UniProtKB/TrEMBL annotation:
Pfam families linked: CEP104-like_TOG (PF21040)
Top-level taxon of the source organism: Eukaryota
Entry protein name: CLIP-associated protein-like
InterPro entries cross-referenced by the UniProt entry: ARM-like, ARM-type_fold
Lineage, top ranks: Eukaryota, Viridiplantae, Streptophyta, Embryophyta, Tracheophyta
PANTHER family: CLASP (PTHR21567), CLIP-ASSOCIATING PROTEIN (PTHR21567:SF9)
Name of the gene this protein is made from: LOC109131870
Length: 158
């Protein structure tokens, strides 16, 4: 219940992830528990907890690319909802996390998460953030014929 303890949990995870492959392996061994922690606290009312969760998530994605992919659809709606947070200290790590997601995953693997994010956002500002992110992701891959060759799922989205 103590916000300091929640921040400390994310700081510990971040320390593990910064240790390289050995630390990442420890996180992967308990990945389901780790993701439960994120899902529970990305929407935390205390801004320091949300900031710690988002910053740690940005470190986790590159280290745990494959296991995170199956959680993306559940996690990204929380990230997009924090993108319109009144506090810059929450919005900044949120933007960084989304930037990492867009560089790490293809549009095809992002699409289910984007659709769910769009459905789950209540705020028009948050819906707009999802749409802008989707457009930027589509544009990033539009110029690459290798990737955009398999665009059946994109046609479905459009």
């Amino acid at each position: 219940s103590d916000w300091c303890a929640r921040v400390a949990a994310f700081n510990f995870l971040q320390t593990l992830l910064q240790q390289g492959p050995k630390g990442a392996q420890e996180v992967i061994q308990s990945f389901e528990k780790v993701m439960k922690l994120f899902l529970r606290h990305l929407d935390d009312p205390h801004h320091k907890v949300a900031q710690a969760a988002l910053s740690t998530l940005a470190d986790l994605i590159p280290s745990c690319r494959k296991p995170f992919e199956s959680y993306m659809e559940r996690v990204l709606p929380h990230v997009f909802s924090r993108l319109i947070d009144p506090k810059e200290v929450v919005r900044q790590p949120c933007s960084s996390t989304l930037e990492i997601v867009s560089k790490t995953y293809s549009v095809d693997s992002l699409l289910p998460a984007l659709l769910r994010s769009l459905d789950e956002q209540r705020s028009p500002k948050a819906k707009l953030a999802v749409i802008e992110f989707a457009i930027n992701s589509f544009n990033r891959y539009a110029g690459n014929p290798e990737i955009s060759g398999n665009s059946g799922i994109l046609k479905l989205w459009l």
